C-alpha cells in the first residue's frame, strides 16, 4: 500500500537534485529573464562596494549574471540548503562565495546586518503556509538598515493552460491536477499573493509589488518545456520520498510528461503564470 505521508521537512525542496534538474533550472532562469528584463529591480540603486545575498541560489545562475553587471569590488554570496546544484565554476570567481544554510534557520551572527540587497526567487515549492513569515524575518535580519529585499515568485497552483485552438489538452490538464494535488498534500501552499502583506507585517517599508504574466510568444516553447519538466521532477521527487497515491512508477510519470509535450505540440496550448516581484526596505 502506498505511503500517504502528507508532510515534508521544513523548507524541503520538492525536486530531485540531479543533472536534469540543473539543466531545467538554467532554462527556467533564461525564461524568467526574458520576461522580467532585469536582475535587480530598476528602483534598486547600486554602488561599488555592495554586499548581496542570493538565498535559495540553486545553480547560482542569478549570481553569475548579476556579477557581470557590477564592479568586482561587490561581494556576492549564495546560500542554499544543498550545494548539489551549484555550478562549481563560480567558486573560482573572486567575488562570489557559497554557503550552506536553510532559510528557516537564523543566519549566523557574522552575517546579520551585513547586506545591501537580499535576492530570493522561486521558493513556492519549498515553503509551507506557516514558513513564509519566518523565512522573511530571517532574510530581513541579513539586511543593513536601508537594505532592500527582492523576492520573485509564482504560485504553481495558480497557473493556467491557455487553449487558443479550443481543443482540451487532456494529458496536460490531468498532470497539472495531479501536480497541484501533490503540492497540497505535502503542504506546499501558494502564499505568493500574500508576500506584500508579509513584507509589511514583518516591518519592511517602501514595499511595492509588480505582477507580470509569463506567456511571451518568443520564449513560450521554453516555458512550456520548463513547466512540463518541473511537474515531472516534482512528481518524481514525491514518488521517491513519499510514495503518494496516484503514482505507481517513475515510468508512469515519464509517460505523463510525454503526453503533456504531445498536447503542447498538437493543440497549440501553452502555460501561463502570474509572477509576483515584491520589494521592501529595512527601516533606517
From TrEMBL:
InterPro entries: Methyltransf_12, SAM-dependent_MTases_sf. Residues 54-149 form the Methyltransferase type domain. It holds the Pfam family Methyltransf_12. This is Methyltransferase type 12 domain-containing protein.
Amino acid at each position: 500500500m502506498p505511503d500517504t505521508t502528507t508532510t515534508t521537512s521544513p523548507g524541503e525542496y520538492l525536486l530531485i537534485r540531479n543533472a536534469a534538474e540543473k539543466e531545467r533550472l538554467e532554462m527556467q532562469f533564461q525564461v524568467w529573464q526574458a520576461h522580467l528584463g532585469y536582475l535587480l529591480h530598476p528602483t534598486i540603486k547600486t554602488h561599488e562596494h555592495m554586499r548581496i545575498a542570493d538565498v535559495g541560489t540553486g545553480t547560482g545562475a542569478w549570481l553569475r549574471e548579476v556579477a557581470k553587471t557590477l564592479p568586482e569590488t561587490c561581494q556576492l554570496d549564495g546560500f542554499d540548503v544543498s550545494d548539489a546544484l551549484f555550478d562549481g565554476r563560480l567558486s573560482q570567481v573572486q567575488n562570489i562565495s557559497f554557503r550552506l544554510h536553510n532559510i528557516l534557520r537564523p543566519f549566523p551572527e557574522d552575517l546579520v546586518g551585513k547586506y545591501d540587497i537580499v535576492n530570493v526567487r522561486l521558493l513556492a515549492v519549498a515553503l509551507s503556509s506557516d514558513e513564509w513569515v519566518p523565512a522573511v524575518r530571517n532574510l530581513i535580519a541579513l539586511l543593513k538598515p536601508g537594505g532592500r529585499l527582492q523576492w520573485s515568485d509564482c504560485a504553481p497552483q495558480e497557473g493556467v493552460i491557455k487553449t487558443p485552438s479550443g481543443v482540451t489538452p487532456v494529458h496536460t490538464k490531468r498532470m497539472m491536477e495531479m501536480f497541484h494535488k501533490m503540492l497540497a498534500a505535502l503542504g506546499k501552499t501558494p502564499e505568493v499573493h500574500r508576500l506584500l502583506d508579509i513584507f509589511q507585517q514583518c516591518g519592511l517599508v517602501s514595499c511595492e509589488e509588480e505582477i507580470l504574466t509569463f506567456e511571451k510568444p518568443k520564449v513560450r516553447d521554453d516555458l512550456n518545456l520548463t513547466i512540463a519538466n518541473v511537474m515531472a521532477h516534482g512528481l518524481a521527487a514525491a514518488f521517491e520520498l513519499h510514495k503518494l497515491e496516484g503514482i505507481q512508477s517513475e515510468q508512469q510519470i515519464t509517460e505523463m510528461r510525454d503526453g503533456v509535450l504531445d498536447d503542447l505540440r498538437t493543440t497549440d496550448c501553452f502555460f501561463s503564470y502570474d509572477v509576483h516581484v515584491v520589494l521592501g526596505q529595512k527601516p533606517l
